[in-house]
Every structure is written in C-alpha cells, then in structure tokens.
Amino acid sequence: MSLLTDLQEGALEPEYLTTRHRRRGGPVLLVTVLLLTVLLTLAVLQTTRGAGTAAEQRQDLLDRIAAARERQTALSDQAAELDAEVRRLGQEGLGDPAQREQLALLEESTGAVAVSGPGIVVVVDDAEDADGTAGLVLAGDVTRLVNGLFVAGAEAISINGRRLTTLTPIRSAGAAITVDYVSLSPPYRLEVIGDPGSLQARFNETSGAAWWHFLTQNYGVSMNITQAENDLSVPADPGMNLRHAEQG
User: What InterPro entries does this protein map onto (predicted)?
Assistant: First the structure.
C-alpha cells in the first residue's frame, strides 16, 4: 500500500502542483486588488468633494465680508454727506457772521469737523523685552501723553487715525488699548496739529512728559517726537453727534 500511495502522490509533477495552487490564489488576489482600488477611489472622491465644498463656503464668506465692507463704506460716505449738509444748514441759519465764525471754531475744537495744519508726530511703543504688563504702553500712559500735548497747545490730536476729543474714552481691554471703543495695536502714532516751533518745547515742561521720561528710562518703552514735514490731516470724530439744539 505504501508503494501505491507513493506512486499516486508522485504522479503529478511539482510544477503542476505549483500552477494549481496559483490558479486557486489568483482570483482571490484579483478581488482584493479590485476592492482596494474601489475604496481608494471612493476616499479620493470624498476628499475632493469635501475640499470643493470647503472652498465654496470660504469664497462665499469672503464675498459676504466684501459686500458688508462696501455697504459700510457707502453708509459712512452717506453719513459724512449728511453731516456736511447739517453743518451747511446750520451756517445758513445764522445770519450774524460773527456767530458763524464762532460756530466754525467750536466745530474744530470739539472734533465735529476734520482739520489740517502743521504739527508734530509722536510715536510710542512697547519695550522689546516686555514681560507681562511691565514694559507695555498702558491706557493711563496714553492718557497722560494726550493731556500733556493738549496742555502744551495742541489744537487737534489723532491716534492711529482716531480723533481724540474731550468725549473720547481711552481704556484698556486686556492687552489692547481702545480709543473710542476701537482696539488699537502698537506702535501708537499720534498726529498733533499745533505750532511745531513751540509745541514740543512746551510739552517737555508738562507732567505728561516727565511721566514718559520715567517710563523710557525704567521700563524700556520708546517715544519718538518729530516735526511733520507736511501738513497733517486729522479726521472728524465719528461719534460726535448733535445732542441738543434750540431755536432762538
């Protein structure tokens, strides 16, 4: 029996046995490759569709932001035109030229209208190695600086493009400084309209200048004062609205 068994098992060549095994494994391998190809294709399609949807949503958001900015600009221009019309009517309502001149002076001093003229530029900034609040320009520091400039004879001041008046709040909001409820970032650039020949010298005699000298010497904050080469333009205070009126 062992001889018959050996003959039966050895009747097939080794190459035939290998081929038969390959024929059995071939379909399985093919199906596996097809399944992997399908899964990868689906993954690529889903990723592509997701990226396309995200890009469309981002573009839609950018379009809405651009439209909102255009709308804001249009409303700001319209508000400026209406303010100019109100001022014109107010001037026409005053028959006395002296009253008209007084009204124009009041509008300039209160920030109701934009002004331009010679002056100085003051730039202050945080210390390079500021640690915590030490070395940072704080709202109180800016307030002392502005008060000193007004005492020195400043006629109009803006900080980072925001007009400062007696009604403009300068406050801290975390690490930022807000001027008229708008957050500003350092460096802080103050454009100061006034007599450039005496403004800086008179400012150096104020308590605000003494405070800032102390800050620059002990906390590393910087302050640079230069005379403006050309006339400065300070915008009107956008929050300056008519609150009370009487008919004489």
Answer: DUF881 (IPR010273)
Three-state DSSP state, 71: helix
Report the distance separating Cα 114 and Cα 159, nearest Å. 14
Q: How far apart are CA 92 and CA 86, in angstroms?
A: 10
84/246 Cα distance (integer angstroms): 19
Distance CA 243, CA 143 (A): 25
12 and 67 share one domain: yes
Contact of 2 with 8, CB cutoff 8 Å: no
Q: Which of 64, 93, 122 is the last residue of a domain?
A: 93
Instruction: Give a yes or no: residue 214 inside a domain.
Output: yes
pTM greater than 0.70: no
Neighbour tally for 139: CB within 10 Å: 16
**CA 188 to chain CA centroid, nearest Å:** 14
Beta bridge mates, 179: 170, 182
**pLDDT digit of tens for each residue in the chain (248 aa)?**
554 455 445 544 554 444 444 445 567 777 787 888 878 887 777 776 666 677 777 888 888 888 888 888 888 778 767 777 776 776 666 666 776 676 666 666 666 678 889 999 999 999 988 776 778 999 999 999 999 999 999 999 999 999 988 788 899 877 789 988 888 989 999 999 999 989 999 999 999 999 999 999 999 999 999 999 999 998 877 766 555 555 55
| End-of-domain residue from the set 37, 64, 93 | 93
* Amino acid, single-letter form, for residue 114: A
